[in-house]
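so my prof wants the structure for this chain in the tokens format not the other one, which i didnt know existed until like an hour ago. anyway here's the sequence
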Amino acid sequence: MMTVYWRLTDPEHRLLSNFSWAAGMYHPMLEKFFQTFFQGDFPTKGKRIYLEHVAEVRRLVPPERLLEYSVSDGWRPLCKFLGKEEPKISFPRGNDIASFLERCQTRNRRQLLNVILQAFTWGVACFVVIVTGMVFIRCLSSFPREVMFRNSVG
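here's what i got, hopefully its the right format
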């Protein structure tokens, strides 16, 4: 099932959702969507629920106002329905399965790089704080006690 459902079940994306704020927001949204609209079982109920939805749309929308369209049909039926001329440019074909998977995998890689960069940044920050603390403690311990507490005793 190479749909957005694949994105929900992608193990890489699921793992990244624990570390990347973007994946951490997107993954629960996908879970909620499939739980809500497909009764929590898209693989088994998805097609039936989709067909029920299509039937309801056909029942509610007058035939003269309804265009049943497949993007593989290109510009012609869409432009005819809208009463517009067909554009001179070719119909965009950017949402096929291969490009969808490529975009998802690219997004995963970028999110992974972002997680690594954040971890590195936090690691460097912690290192700097620890080293600064150690230097500060060493500096304090090198002062004679009477200098450190001279003004504190009234």
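also thought this was worth mentioning. The chain has a mean pLDDT of 87.
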